[in-house]
Amino acid sequence: MTRLQLAGVSVELGGVPIVTECDLEVGDNERVGLVGPNGSGKSTLLRTVFRAVDPVAGRVALDGDDVRSLSQRQIARRAALVHQEPVTDFDFTVEDIVALGRAPWQGPFDRTGPADHDAVMNALARVNLLDYRSRQIGTLSGGEKQRVLVARAIAQDSPLLLLDEPTNHLDIHAALDLLELVRTLERTTLCVLHDLNFAASYCDRLYVLKAGRVVAGGPPADVLSPELVRDIFGVECTHLTHPTTGQLLLAFSPTPPRTPDPASGNVPLGEKMKSRVGQ
Ligand SMILES: Nc1ncnc2c1ncn2[C@@H]1O[C@H](COP(=O)(O)OP(=O)(O)OP(=O)(O)O)[C@@H](O)[C@H]1O
User: Cα separations (Å) of 127 from 22, 46, 57, 132, 179?
Assistant: First the structure.
């Protein structure tokens, strides 16, 4: 049983407010998505769970326990993170990286035991990377490295999964496979997603962040209204129904171009590019 709660969380970085008074909850076995424009604070919110950054106000709690009262090991036993940074440690094999997921369960002088080995092999099999286990991590493609990070989180065997753009680098087949895999893991999940159709079809509930504030929360079909998508992302969106699954499908089109205003320096990107190529 795992529940994540963020209550009134505010974060400052370098003295600048990045996240302001965020309330967010992920219930046991729920899959919750976090969406919002680039720079809106999604990764920063995830980072508060691991105390990579501490809020200046509010509380982050795992199963009711303030994360500030937990050691890093205790947090890692409850929550695993699949982050965005590329893995570049050339000296490590794929198996070494996935085995790091077992560290929270091992004592300082423990050697990797049969149970750890089984967990690592099982995790590699779940992401179809068993044949890659002896490869140096630096020799893998971006999508393969992403799957290694997911395998590490599976091996970590914590009830809460935090995923920061897990479909980054993945082709459409691999992306759908990965989302389906995470669904079958049946863990409590908070997932940052940029693809709103993935968010709509994969998540039970969504939160929308804008400039560090939670501006909407609820079931995807309610949250991702054409009005909200226009307001938050600046694009037009139409709700369709998938012909076979019956799920919500969002179709996007650009908003009508804004009138360029060179005097204010507020020139849309497309206009800037045209002027650069002399059109
Ligand atoms: N150490 C820092 N000092 C100052 N500002 C920072 C620092 N780290 C991040 N930021 C800023 O915080 C804001 C939120 O960043 P964050 O990575 O949380 O956004 P995000 O919503 O995850 O973005 P993206 O979708 O692009 O990954 C950004 O404007 C970023 O530039």
Answer: 34, 23, 38, 11, 11
Ligand 1 center to residue 39 CA distance, Å?
A: 5
- The fold adopted by the segment(s) 4-225 is Rossmann fold (3.40.50)
Whether the CB-CB separation of 112 and 119 falls below 8 Å is answered with no
Q: Is ipTM strictly over 0.90?
A: yes
C-alpha of residue 165 to centroid of ligand 1, in Å: 14
Partners of 35 in the β-ladder: 208
What are the boundaries of each domain within the chain?
4-225, 234-279
- What are φ and ψ of residue 275, in 5° steps? -65, -30
CA 194 to centroid of chain Cα atoms: 9
Best residue for ligand 1 mutational test, from 13, 49, 196 (most atoms within 8 Å of Cβ)? 13
pLDDT of residue 275: 47
- The structure tokens listed for 257 are 């171009």
Nearest atom in ligand 1 to 36's CA: 21
Q: Which pairs with CB-CB distance under 8 Å and at least 24 residues apart come from 172-175?
A: 174/143, 174/147
- Whose C-alpha lies nearest to ligand 1, atom 5? 13
Give the pLDDT band of residue 278 (cuts 50, 70, 90).
very low
State if residue 193 touches ligand 1 by the CB under 6 angstroms criterion: no
For ligand 1, the distance from its centroid to the CA atom of residue 111, given in whole angstroms, is 38
Using one digit for the tens of pLDDT, what is the confidence trace for 41-52? 999 999 999 999
